[in-house]
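@channel sequence for tomorrow's demo:
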Amino acid sequence: MTAYQAWRGLQPRKPAARLQFPPLRPTLGRMSGLTTHVLDTMHGRPAAGIALRLLRAGTTLVSTVTNADGRCDSPLLTERTLEAGAYRLEFEVGAYYRGLGMTLPEPAFLETVAIEFGVADAGAHYHVPLLVSPFAYSTYRGS
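structure tokens (generated this afternoon):
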């Protein structure tokens, strides 16, 4: 215990417990493939009507538009078409916000959001959500 800890009445820290996570289990059978979901964090709702593209090695594999729920009507890639490797998702967020009647600076801070990600296990499910506003975005590997 340091003098400061004694003066403050603090107890020494115990070593942190090692985190143990249970193995992931599919809930409704084995799901695999690639999906996405776009949420408009500025308005607090799904981002309907965002044009997006999926590319691999510079080649466009899929071009589509999000539905009313901010999702695509079908998986971007299925278990038969998903392969291990590097991919890029491009979302046209500038056009989306202009389509809502917003005036964006010229050039827009975010015109196209590109997410580059890797697929290590082609038999797994990869969900790549996008949370977006005109000035910020976030993504993660979802479930």
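heads up for whoever presents: The chain has a mean pLDDT of 90.
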